[in-house]
Each structure stands twice: as C-alpha cells, then as structure tokens.
TrEMBL record:
Coiled-coil regions listed: none
Entry's Gene Ontology BP terms: mitochondrion organization; protein retention in Golgi apparatus; protein targeting to vacuole
InterPro entries, per the entry: VPS13, VPS13-like_C
Record organism: Micrurus surinamensis (Surinam coral snake)
Protein name, entry field: Intermembrane lipid transfer protein VPS13-like C-terminal domain-containing protein
A Pfam entry, by short name: VPS13_C
Residue ranges constituting the Intermembrane lipid transfer protein VPS13-like C-terminal domain according to the UniProt record: 27-110
Amino acid sequence: GGIIDMASSTFQGIQRVAESTEEVSSLRPPRLIREDGIIRPYDRGEADGCDLFENSHIKKLEAESFQHYCPVPGRGKAYIVVTSRRVILMKEMEILGHMITDWDYLYEDFT
C-alpha cells in the first residue's frame, strides 16, 4: 500500500506541475559566446546584435559568425552588421516588420 500511495502522489504532483506550466519568454537575448569559447561578462549590445543577426531572415554564409553591429543614425531601424565574412546593412521592412539586407559586401570584394 505505501509504495502505491507514494507512486500515486508523485504522479499527481508531476501532473499538476505539467498542467500549470506557462509559456516562458526570455527577458533578454542570450549571451554571445565567440569562436574562442571563452565566456565573458554579459554585454547587452553584443547580445542584441547577435540576436538581430541570428533571428533575421538573412541567409548565413558557410562558417559565418556575428562579430559586431551598430545602429545607423537617421535611418530608422537600420544596422551595420559585421560578421566574420562580410559587412551587411540590415533594415526593417515597416510593413512586414522583419529585417532585410539593403546591401552586403564580402571582405574579399574590398580592394
């Protein structure tokens, strides 16, 4: 009897937790961990830029990783994004609300 009661109450507890879980959303973008794997103090600017790049609809190149970004003054929601392979000007499509590439240049195209 005791084992069955314990198993039953454990199952009921798990069921209650499973039924009462709510969708949890992040309060901030995840920390940027660079290629060297060293975990550095959280930097909101780096995290925002990496999140912008990773969650955009912009096609990533092979072995491309986020390096840096900065907003473009006077251009609304536009950002210069620097990756390991290129420089990108991203801007928000006002109607659709997602980021698009205005232009991008691979480093090998610079002469």
